[in-house]
Amino acid sequence: MKISIIGGGPVGCYTGYLFAKEGHLVTIYENHPLIGSPIQCTGILTNDFDDFGFPLKSFLVNTINKIEVISPSGEEVLIKQKDYIVCRNKFDNFFADLAKKAGAKILVNHSFIRKEGKAVIIKDSLTNKEIKVTPDLVIGADGPLSPTAKAFGFYNSERKNYYGVQAVVEGKFEPGTIKTYFGQSICPGLFAWIVPESSTIARVGIAAVKDSRKYFDKFMKENNFKAKEIQAGTIPIYHPRQKLHQDNCYLVGDAAGFVKATTLGGLIPGLKQAEIMVKSVLEGKDYEVEIKPLRRKMKIHLMIHNILDKFSDKDFDKMVRYVNQPKIQKIFEQHTRENPLPILLKAGLKEPRFAYFVKYLW
Length: 362
Prior knowledge:
Layout: E1 2-6, H1 10-20, E2 25-30, E3 44-46, E4 60-70, E5 76-86, H2 88-101, E6 105-108, E7 110-116, E8 119-124, E9 129-133, E10 137-140, H3 147-151, E11 161-170, E12 177-181, E13 192-196, E14 201-208, H4 212-222, E15 227-236, E16 245-246, E17 249-251, H5 267-283, H6 287-290, H7 292-308, H8 313-323, H9 326-334, H10 341-350
Parallel strand pairs: 1-2, 1-10, 2-6, 4-12, 10-17
Antiparallel strand pairs: 3-5, 4-5, 7-8, 8-9, 11-14, 11-15, 12-13, 13-14, 16-17
């Protein structure tokens, strides 16, 4: 098959690798001049990434062993979790190199322009010329505002995006601990984060539906942080009715909204989605059936997000107190954030007071 992949991020390149290694003709079109730039992601991986079997050494920046959650009133809970902090530039290029070694071609400065029948029009921004290609498959891996999704009639008007702002700052940090701060005045609908690269460098940011920069500037000022560099980007919230496939086009990663609504982490869900999609295509399986287990996980994240979105500051304080019990902390430590269902079930059985928050489902 001749396959055109729109977007040269890690999910697009991993998709290209999976097809190319099976002998298919893959071209990846990336609209930026460099793979991995600009950076629009914090770069946190849960240790579920180990399941892929990729070496970490080429892009690993730091290993985390604890997450500290701080409530609006300052109550804290510490949860043991293993996470990896990666250099997104090196991480993206790792997957690009993987795709190229498998035989995929990557063309930078090439943007998707429009669909014409069964063909797609790509523009080379260096020559300002348009190229017409007619692939057997088109894969939209071009981010939350995906032009491919819009051109092929996928784009769901109900989709909601967050807007994240992050800075690299200097200071004194606990290198093994991510700190998260909750509260309506800090970051409504999500949380602020301090993610250490080392004991002296950290990634600090927030994401919100609106006024992101206002909340970011406030958090930076309150903590006396000065930005060495600032990154920003759009992050989709998973939508359960988002179509993933029609005709000869598939969506993957942020273009499909495959981002955990609880944390806005999309790297592992996107990579797993790519594996399921490619296997379905190559083995002639029903993609919508094969993707259901991953969709269920994404829906649970969305359900939790919708509950937290209605929390008052007192609710966050209460939640932190409930979690700050050895019996509950142990449950959180036994499972990663990729699959929250076991945490919900076990925590609910151990601490019935969590049922108080169920009212926010409606």
